[in-house]
Amino acid sequence: MTADDELQKIPGVKLVHQAPLDRYTRFGIGGKARVLADADNEQALAEAVKALKASGEPFTVIGGGTNLVVSDEGFPGVVLRYTCPAIDIDGITVHAAAGVVLQHLTDLTVARGLRGLETMTGIPGWVGGAIYGNAGAYGHSIHERVKSVRYFDGTGIHELGNSACQFRYRESVFKLRKDWIVLSVTLDLDAADAAELSATATGILNIRNEKYPPTMRCAGSIFKNLMLNDLPAAVRAELPERAVREGKVPSAYFLELAGAKGMVEGGVRVATYHANLIFNEGGGTAAQVRTLIEELKRRVREKFGFELEEEVQFIVPFAAMR
Ligand SMILES: Cc1cc2nc3c(=O)[nH]c(=O)nc-3n(C[C@H](O)[C@H](O)[C@H](O)COP(=O)(O)OP(=O)(O)OC[C@H]3O[C@@H](n4cnc5c(N)ncnc54)[C@H](O)[C@@H]3O)c2cc1C
Predict the structure, then answer these.
(1) CATH entry, 87-197, from 3.30.465.10, 3.40.630.30, 3.20.20.150, 3.40.50.300
(2) 34 is catalytic
(3) CA 239 to ligand 1 centroid distance, Å
């Protein structure tokens, strides 16, 4: 039994049948979802999840699709997006729904003279995805500004304070609890000079646009960077000082030494200027991305004796179910 009849009745839910997921993800890769369901308010989302659970149909949640590799087979159930774009600013406190485009939030807070998100400029995707993966750049992550996160656990709405969100580098409790859906976040920012924030943001965006041209089909960094203290002692002993930044070593450092730059697998390629950036040149497949990832991991494992961990998330037919 599919949940379509129930989903169709919910105000605020829109369905696309046989949705080509390559069009909903920045990598431009992946097969079809049986249904893509967009819910634009909390009640609609909650009702949709309850209908899906009652039907027993598999479902998974995505946001802006900028950190995803979708399987070539697509997803046989319902891909759900919470699309609410609400933002409310009260002094230095900002409430943003999970469906807000992160760049809109960044631009708005910068324009209002609120410090805290300006280094996030150029990180694509939505607020819910940013909380899930504790997105960040230029030495800062979103968790530094999070006061609380509201989420739906399949039966009710709950709120967690910052420490209960278990934020770490590119990690949060929401990565551990894939049955929880982020609804909104409250952020504490600081009053600052808008022109100064804007100059910082513009500078960052210019650099980022060179590394990630806006039309590049990719998911940002493929692998997480490495915590210096987690690396094998023998590897640490050989590291030049310049390879360490804020207690981390970019995985690109090891990938480059393993000869990753410019590697090609069908329609996907490692950038010649950045060893931790895989992009779809056109016609790339998820299988090719997977093959390239496995080869890169193998090379680093054999050369350095540790395992790289993917930052990118995967939507596969039978694994990512809630
Ligand atoms: C060009 C480029 C540059 C990038 N640069 C950076 C960077 O500098 N720093 C950085 O951290 N990331 C970067 N990324 C990765 C990506 O932009 C971030 O991870 C982003 O926060 C993902 O948001 P999204 O809405 O696109 O999530 P999606 O890709 O749609 O989903 C990612 C994961 O989040 C989960 N998720 C999404 N929404 C919700 C929700 N509401 N509730 C629960 N789970 C949810 C999904 O299930 C999935 O597992 C980059 C990506 C690209 C393409």
Answers:
(1) 3.30.465.10
(2) no
(3) 30
In the prediction, which pLDDT does 322 show? 44
Protein residue whose Cα sits closest to atom 17 of ligand 1: 124
pLDDT of residue 319: 53
Assess whether 118 carries a catalytic annotation.
no
Give the amino acid at 228: L
The mean pLDDT of 26-35, rounded to a whole number, is 97
Ligand 1 contacts CB of residue 123 (under 6 A): yes
Whether the pTM exceeds 0.85: the reply is yes
Helices (H) and strands (E) in the chain, counts: 9, 21
The CATH T-level fold of domain 213-315 is 3.90.78
In this prediction, residues 289-309 reach a mean pLDDT of 98
Nearest CA to ligand 1 atom 51: 220
Q: Give yes or no: 238 in active site.
A: no
In degrees and rounded to multiples of 5, residue 29 shows phi and psi of -130, 145
Interhelix angle 102-111/194-211, rounded to 10 degrees, is 150
CA 137–ligand 1 middle distance (angstroms): 13
Residues facing 279 on adjacent strands = 218, 269
